[in-house]
Amino acid sequence: MKINTQGEGEKRGRQQKHHTQKRRISTDPPGRTTHEDRQLEVNTETHDRSFVIMLKKDESQRDTSKASQSAAGNDAILAAIAKHGAELSKITSLVDGLKKSVEGRLDAIDATLTSLQKKYRESERRFEDLDEAMSANDSRLAMLEASCKELQVANTLLKAKVNDLEGRSRRLNVRIVGVKEGGEKGNPTDFVAKLLPELLGHENFSRPIKIDRAHRSLRPKPQPNERPRVIIAKVHNDRDVFDILRLSRQRSPLLYRGDRVPIFPDYTAEVSAKRQAFAGVRKRLTDAGAKCSLRFPAKLQVDYNNTSMTFISMDIGGVRLSSFSGLGGGGRGSINGNFSHFQ
């Protein structure tokens, strides 16, 4: 910018000098002396130099002014740059702080995710183990269910067999109720052998009743004012057992020293419950004129009009025995009607 200004000044000076010379040549009168010409040339040159100096000075002032303005503009730009730099530094600092905070949080999240992944893999492994165990347990459970069904069937059969064996082992037993404590005087076997003929009549037995063993029921000895324990006696001959039970029903009530002493067969709880189920219908049938009897273990035999039927349950052919209400008519609720249905 400055070099161009100086060039223009020199150019203008040369142009001015050239115009001056031309003016001088054109205005000089002919015949002027050489000294005057020289003096004129000197003056012209001096004037040109002064003019050039003034031009250069003006150009220098302009350059200085422009430089000052440029320096002021540069200072403003530098100040703005410095301000923006400070703001940028603050922003950079904030970004760095935010970056560190985010990095810290990301590290924590990464650690948490790593822990969760580990737990997830552990849970997945456990679920796989549980799935395998459940599959194995399902197989075992199926086998156990099948085995349990077999055992249930076998248990039912064994239970029935045990009840039957226990009931048969008691078929020769009789239960004597109501004899006061101490009446047997320490020898219940001989006491029962003498008591039975005394209660039922000596004339009804052609030979002495043989008792294998006898004892009181297995419970604590009662107080004097309490009910005495039952005497359980095993008779040696089954024919004697049949006669004892038959005579006890025929000669009821039996008395011993002023106390009633009934005699019953010795049944298990299961057999007693089954036989007790026939008690109500048996009484109604007997009152209606039918002959009823219970055979071991729990079989109801009904005889009527030369017809005999045996029942092992209260429900036979969809008809309950408790629906029997009378002998005649042949209706659904009569013995004739039910017998014809069962036949």
Automatic annotation (TrEMBL):
Gene3D superfamilies: L1 transposable element, RRM domain. PANTHER family: L1 TRANSPOSABLE ELEMENT-RELATED. This is L1 transposable element RRM domain-containing protein. Residues 1-49 are annotated as: Disordered. Keywords: Coiled coil. InterPro entries: Transposase_22. Residues 14-24 have a biased composition (Basic residues). The keyword Ligase does not apply. Residues 106-168 form a coiled coil.
